[in-house]
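Predict structure. Chain length: 181.
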Amino acid sequence: MNPLSPPAPGAGPTTADAPLVVGAPPWARVYQVAVVVPDLAQAAAYYESLGIGPFREGPSAHTTKRLIRGVESPDTVVKGLIAPLGAIELELFEPVAGPSIQREFLERRGPGPIHLCAFTDDIDRDIAWMAERGTPVISYGELSDGGRFAYFDTIAIGGLVLELYQLGPDGEIIPTTGENQ
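Prediction complete.
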């Protein structure tokens, strides 16, 4: 099951299916809002009690390489759960070990929305596009399926980080266990 599918049949295409416009900013395919929390299980149970979910393991568990501000961070562990939320996805994060953007956010601002994420078909192109606008990557990761993500330093204006996510070569979201982790 694609976690980006809308809950109602015939509700339209997912944002992953939206056409890319050549030369357009990479934010035309936003599909996710993420919230950082101190207790992932508690947050997932709370949101599920409100009818959001079910939650399942997100791509964070499959990160094989992570850089924080350009420095490799092999000891970083960030747990994540995802759930459909209408036509978008809700991701919950709990920083567990090592330095991370999520830990910094939680320590400085407390729990709350941390990022908006959009699909890209060429993360290198879009990292360069953001760099041309003076917005550097603050966190970069590679996933076991070949997918990649980049967080950008946009928090000073509006309080949100922007993230881009490129699917792995098979074009699928990493399969999940369907269990809360």
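Summary: The first helix runs from residue 40 to 49.
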